[in-house]
Design a protein that fits this description.
Number of strands of chain B: 4
Strand order of the largest sheet of chain A: 6-7-8-3-9-10
Structural class of chain B: mainly alpha
Largest sheet of chain A: 6 strands, mixed
Number of helices of chain B: 13
Distance between the termini of chain B: 24 Å
Largest interface: A-B, 43 and 35 residues
Helix content of chain B: over 70%
Mean pLDDT of chain B: 89
Shape of chain A: globular
Radius of gyration of chain A: 25 Å
Order of helices and strands of chain B: HHHHHHEHEEHHHEHHH
Oligomer: heterodimer
Strand content of chain B: under 5%
Structural class of chain A: alpha/beta
Strand order of the largest sheet of chain B: 1-4
Shape of chain B: globular
Low-confidence stretches of chain B: 1-16
Mean pLDDT of chain A: 84
Number of strands of chain A: 22
Helix content of chain A: 25-40%
């Protein structure tokens, strides 16, 4: 929707732009990753790129940062043609990217990571540690990370801090454009807020920021303009002040999925207690008091909390992956001991893990093989695989979850993030679990697939399945859950009923002081 | 949906093997190229006696490489197979020379002894590696020394010989020029192929090589699967020991030095990824053939054994580079 402008104004606008991209195309074999992208950056703005997974945002970023060359189109930076040959070239032009996947060296210190591109040297050509640590301190202070020790190894830090260290590293060298590729995907609300403060301060220094996110509330909180991608094309660029989240979503999906997602309120009839957790202490829990709750059939119990509150550890403990320090688990009123995932699965429990690439899927294996991974009995007879049955099971699971795939024998890596997540779901659903545990069920999943996954989960609850869901996205928890438990420091800080749901209430509990826990112990 | 009906007509199993055929096609072509080259440039390469010779020469390496394929598929390595083979041979040699038994009995006893010795060594490798989650490279390096030392100790560093005639006969028997011991190796290849491609066990071994955690979280006893892979490797070392004794009619405590490297080379040339999860035992068969054909052909062509060794080294490096491109291609 580029307005026709008189020629004189057009040129003046071009000179105003720090970066402008016109008619950019990039093909990978027969796949058109970018198919006519038009996009411009004004100096000092925060510009959002939104669109479903595979819409072309990441490819554009990779072209801008010199990872891929482009096939056709034009890019100008500061009025001069710009075609970075490699990431280093892009950096010398002041274009810095903080990638979605971390590029940190886990065993090295924060300071070493920050200086990795240009290590300071002494007169004798040796590594100048003092200077390196000083630079790192400056870089961390610049983004408000005063509490992080520059000599600590990256390994010892949480995911959120690693993200911020990447940003510190990127900002350390002179940058005119800072591209943040889904920086909040792994952050909790509190950390996101901190990141936003940092973004604002960087912006105040005159750096132009490109912000990629699946979360429209974030886009509307900190961005000045938004460019919407769909199928490798830019649909439109709008001023944030002139548009609404619903309007942006309509452009993104090209259909009115937004409303579908908001139809969340639906009270379930609570059944018997499926899982009784009594004073469960995971090994990481520093206190003597554990966590107790009941999970009923036909209900969704949400678990909220900040990163480090012990949410994932709790789920892993319940599922028998990590040993427990103390506490009991009752399944249908009978005490059980899970020595490993195997026992939990035998008790009718499924676990959709947080990290589908590391824990959920075998990416190089066919979709069908991934779905049967937890269901080998269904697809084999006396230890021999029945390929026909396996295929059939995968096809049925795929149909139920509206899985979009080429062939059921294609590797799982050929699917988009949302469809990969559906494969993980299908793997567990094929067992007809009575209890399904989900850790961040829609992380890195696009809007369309998200709505579909919500619909699937709601369908399960209607059938009487008990769901235990951990999510860092509060709207997601509030949409899905019947009750929400808020964790902090491996303790339950409060329980919210549907009528009490609000981001404010959750956050209040999540940030609550430790007085409670210490009082009990 | 049109695609879905296509899937109906295409069983997963066949698709798997089609893919493995394509993966193996390159190796097969390389082997054909070598055969063609040597049959043009040497006089005796295609001579039936020479072919029998090649088959005999690759047999032991092939048996060891079959077991090695299991270990490498789960992301491990077994450096001890050469020593374990010697240890198993010496133990079997002790059994076969026991006085007071008939020839059939001692042969049977020797076979059981060799296979058991291999089994125990493999089991130990697997248990120690899996229980402490240690790198198999180091553990099996330790076993390499232990088994070699044990072989020397048990035999007093003496070569054991004078076996029953029937045993020698088995070692040199041929069916239409094909050595029987080679047929044993081939049967092991087919059995391994069946286990890896048609059983739940085999599928999960591939799964463990790709993503151990995902397999564990799906409720499978990953620990025992890995132990099983190492145990199978030990077993094949035991079988190789029997074949070695039958062929040479001796059990030497210094047999099999460096055999582990040839076995690993066959697996890698055969296209199995050193990081696990990808590869096939058919590739291993072809890899063992490539090594055997090269060794034989280069000698026929008149190159020294030193040159032959250099060229085998080059082939290994080329195979790994090809594997790099294959992995990149597979990702796209």
């Amino acid at each position: 929707m580029v307005a026709v402008q008189p020629i004189g104004e057009q040129t003046s606008q071009d000179t105003d732009n720090l970066l402008s991209v016109t008619g950019l195309k990039k093909h990978f074999g027969g796949v058109k990753a970018l198919d006519g992208v038009n996009f411009s950056l004004k100096p000092g703005e925060v510009h959002a790129l939104v669109g479903e997974n595979g819409a072309g945002k990441s490819t554009l970023i990779k072209v801008l940062s010199g990872v891929f060359p482009f096939d056709a189109g034009e890019i100008t930076l500061d009025g001069a043609p710009y075609a970075p040959a490699n990431p280093h070239h892009a950096k010398t032009h002041g274009v810095q990217v903080v990638h979605q996947e971390f590029n940190l060296l886990d065993h090295l210190s924060v300071a070493e990571n920050i200086s990795i591109e240009a290590m300071p040297k002494t007169r004798f050509g040796l590594l100048d540690r003092t200077e390196m640590n000083r630079r790192a301190r400056v870089a961390l202070d610049a983004i408000g990370l005063r509490d992080v020790d520059v000599c600590a190894t990256v390994q010892s830090l949480g995911i959120a801090h690693r993200q911020l260290i990447e940003i510190a590293r990127a900002l350390q060298s002179e940058s005119t454009i800072l591209i943040l590729d889904e920086p909040t995907a792994t952050l909790t609300e509190r950390e996101t807020k901190r990141l936003f403060e940092i973004v604002q301060s960087i912006k105040a220094k005159g750096v132009t920021i490109v912000f990629v996110s699946h979360h429209l509330n974030e886009v509307f909180a900190i961005c000045d303009r938004v460019t919407i991608f769909r199928n490798g094309k830019t649909i439109t660029t709008e001023n944030i002040s002139d548009t609404t989240p619903a309007g942006v979503v309509r452009h993104m999906v090209g259909r009115k999925l937004a409303e579908e997602m908001e139809h969340g309120v639906e009270l379930h009839t609570r059944g018997d207690i499926a899982l009784g957790i009594k004073d469960l202490c995971v090994v990481q829990n520093p206190y003597d008091t554990g966590i107790s709750f009941d999970l009923h059939y036909g209900e969704v119990l949400g678990i909220a909390g900040l990163v480090g509150a012990g949410r994932t550890e709790l789920l892993r403990g319940v599922f028998g992956i990590d040993p427990l320090r103390s506490g009991t688990i009752e399944r249908d009123g009978t005490p059980v001991k899970f020595k490993g995932p195997r026992d939990a699965i035998a008790a009718g429990i499924g676990f959709v893990t947080e990290d589908r690439k590391d824990e959920g899927l075998i990416l190089e294996m066919p979709i069908a093989a991934n779905i049967s991974l937890a269901n080998m009995r269904n697809v084999s007879a006396s230890g021999l695989l029945r390929f026909f049955k396996e295929k059939q099971q995968a096809r049925e699971g795929g149909k139920r979850l509206k899985l979009k795939y080429g062939k059921i024998t294609d590797p799982a890596s050929s699917l988009s993030g949302g469809n990969q997540q559906k494969v993980v779901l299908a793997k567990w659903l094929a067992r007809n679990p009575k209890i399904l545990i989900l850790d961040e069920p829609t992380r890195g999943v696009d809007v369309g697939a998200k709505a579909e996954i919500y619909a699937i989960l709601k369908g399960l609850v209607r059938e009487g399945v008990a769901l235990l869901i951990v999510s860092s996205e509060m709207p997601e928890l509030m949409t899905l859950s019947d009750r929400i438990l808020v964790l902090a420091d491996h303790q339950i800080k409060g329980e919210l009923e549907r009528s009490e749901f609000s981001e404010e209430n959750i956050l209040k509990l999540a940030y609550g002081q430790n007085t409670n826990a210490e009082g009990i112990s | 949906m049109a695609e879905q009906s296509d899937i109906l007509a295409e069983p997963t199993g066949r698709d798997f093997s089609i893919r493995s055929i394509i993966n193996n096609a390159g190796i097969g072509l390389a082997l054909l190229g070598l055969i063609l080259f040597f049959s043009i440039f040497t006089e005796h390469f295609l001579n039936p006696n020479n072919i029998t010779n090649i088959l005999t020469q690759i047999t032991i390496n092939l048996i060891l490489a079959v077991g090695m394929t299991f270990v490498i598929l789960v992301g491990g390595i077994d450096l001890s197979v050469g020593s374990v083979m010697a240890f198993a041979a010496v133990v079997a040699g002790k059994a076969i020379t026991l006085p007071g038994f008939g020839p059939t009995e001692v042969i049977l006893l020797a076979c059981i002894a060799a296979v058991t010795a291999g089994f125990v060594c493999g089991l130990l490798n697997g248990l120690i590696t899996s229980y402490w989650a240690l790198p198999s490279f180091i553990i099996t390096l330790g076993m390499l020394n232990i088994a070699r030392g044990a072989a020397l100790h048990v035999s007093n560093a003496q070569t054991i010989y004078s076996f029953p005639f029937a045993f020698e006969e088995f070692g040199s028997a041929q069916i239409y020029g094909v050595p029987v011991v080679f047929l044993v190796a081939l049967a092991l290849v087919l059995l391994a192929w069946f286990v890896l491609n048609r059983t739940v066990f085999g599928r999960l071994l591939y799964g463990i090589g790709n993503n151990e955690e995902a397999v564990r979280l799906a409720g499978h006893p990953v620990f025992w699967y890995k132990v099983a892979a190492f145990t199978i490797c030990g077993l094949t070392a035991g079988i190789a020991a029997v074949v070695y004794m039958a062929r040479l009619n001796i059990a030497s405590p210094i047999a099999g030095i460096g055999f582990e490297l040839n076995a690993i080379a066959a697996v890698i040339i055969g296209g199995t990824s050193l990081s696990g999860g990808r590869g096939s035992v058919i590739g291993t068969l072809l890899g063992a053939f490539i090594i055997g054909v090269l060794a034989n052909g280069l000698i026929l062509i008149g190159l020294s054994d030193f040159m032959r060794q250099m060229i085998t080294g080059v082939v290994i490096i080329i195979a790994v580079i090809l594997d790099y491109y294959r992995a990149r291609y597979a990702k796209k």
